[in-house]
Amino acid sequence: MRHYVSFYGTIFVNATHFDILRQHLSHDIVGQHALIDSMLIALLCDGHILIEGMPGLAKTTAIKSLASGIEGDFHRIQFTPDLLPADLVGTDIYKHESGEFQFRPGPLFHNMLLADEINRSPPKVQSALLESMAERQITVGQQTYPLPKLFMVLGTQNPVEHEGTYPLPEAQLDRFLLHLRVDYPSRDEELRILDLIDQPKSTISTQKITQTEIFAAREAVKQVYLDDKLKGYIVDMVRASRAPRHYDSDLTRWQRFGASPRASIALIYCARALAWLQGENYVSPSHIHAVAPNILRHRILLSFEAEADNISPDDFIQRLLQVVAIP
């Protein structure tokens, strides 16, 4: 059991608290274990997550289920081409009674925000969202407003249908802690989905994880031991994504731009979170390898030669993990 002391008081928290949340998610979602684990890791690391997958793969359902198991406000926004920045951040409303403008907060002031089909809104909307993701604040006119301490953006997008979409800028993609790709369920999982149709909906209320417990768990995750050699391994891996000529000739041909130092920070946070969720007191190379694809996938730009060779970012990452030596 992990012990955490802060101005919230003395709080005892361990991975069992999040096992309850995982069970709650597994009750609503059939399969998709990687999606469930990734959402828990993002929550523990105070990060945002981008979920990419075809329609009907329970992306929105999983996010709503996560929000229902956490103490806090939840809001869903359907991103469309006619969305305006004020639809996110809010706006100043003129009050005749006082003769003054009063700020009316927008959906960004909720604890958890589902940005459904996030790539369907124009750059002005994305810039408003970027400030909230990066600075945890929004600006309206000359006034800046802080967002809640527990604030998480969960975006979804379709990987195939690109008509009427706006590719997310690299600066915004880099603010997503994880970029997860959701695949189709297996045959057995799809049969279980069909079985759920005939079952009555459960009315059992699940005890929600409080925000205080979440903040305590985040502090506990920071205490998971990470050896200096593994820190060096993480740095070498990220640097190899920028300058792979010292490691592999194919990576050199495929690479256009590598990951930023934000990827190194994310690898440390997420590897610790995964180890903590698994009840481990230290980070091993397997933890780093498990979280690396979702962290590096959206931070690496491939060359035209890679596209011609049908090389995906996942192929690049797997080769990267092979050629960078584990200490």
Helix vs. strand class: alpha/beta
CATH topology of the largest domain: Rossmann fold
In spatial order, strands of the major sheet run 4-7-10-3-11
- Tell me the CATH architecture of the largest domain: 3-Layer(aba) Sandwich
Q: What's the shape?
A: globular
CATH class of the largest domain: Alpha Beta
Could you please describe the fold and organization of this structure?
- There is one protein chain.
- With 327 residues, the chain is α/β, with parallel strands linked by helices.
- The chain has two domains: 11-196, Rossmann fold; 224-323, Orthogonal Bundle (Helicase, Ruva Protein, domain 3), CATH 1.10.8.80.
- The protein has 14 helices and 13 strands.
- Strand 1 and strand 2 (9-13) form a beta hairpin.
How would you describe this structure in keywords?
327 residues, alpha/beta, Rossmann fold, Helicase, Ruva Protein, domain 3, 2 domains, five-stranded parallel sheet, two-stranded antiparallel ribbon, 14 helices, 13 strands, 45% helix, 19% strand, disordered N terminus
Summarize it.
This protein has helices spanning 15-28, 33-44, 59-68, 86-89, 123-135, 170-175, 187-197, 211-222, 228-242, 249-254, 261-277, 285-296, 304-308, 313-323, and strands spanning 2-6, 9-13, 48-52, 74-78, 90-95, 100-105, 112-116, 137-140, 143-146, 152-157, 176-181, 255-257, 301-302. By secondary structure, it is α/β, with parallel strands linked by helices.
